[in-house]
Amino acid sequence: MTSLDSLDLSRNRLVGSIPLSLAQIYRLGVLDLSHNHLSGEIPTSSQLQIFIKSSYEDNIDLCGPPLEKLCIDGELTQKPNVNVYEEYLFFNNEFLISMGIGFTASFWMVFGSILFKRSWRRSYFNFLNNLKDNVHVKIAIFVTVLKQDKDYQVTISYVLYIAFFMY
Prior knowledge:
Elements lengths: L5 E3 L6 E2 L13 E3 L4 E5 L4 H4 L11 E3 L29 H24 L1 H31 L7 H10 L2
């Protein structure tokens, strides 16, 4: 791994200090460690100091050259401010709360109206009965057509066409 040409570790939520082994990559032409939560001093080597400041951008607790923020005795001048917040987490609390509210509201809009309006309740159960009967008839036609064709010359697509588009 000492012959990497470019290394882009930006926006990976990395926490901690930059490892010393990164300074031993000699032919590294491009390095991007920006937008992480790195802290401590940038390892001193001619390799890591030649990259531009934007390679280390948005790492608040990172110090040392080429950054303007200097370290005193290899330590930060202030206490590290590593507060990793999962801002891109999809299933965060706000999402789960809104999903619960949406489910409850839609459930009561649909089934509450069926529960309280007799005409809608009758229409809904008539629809379910008709759907059950329709599926039963189509399955019976499908099985009958398969039993009648003993030579199996009728393709499955034709049988499905007959069964589902007959009505």
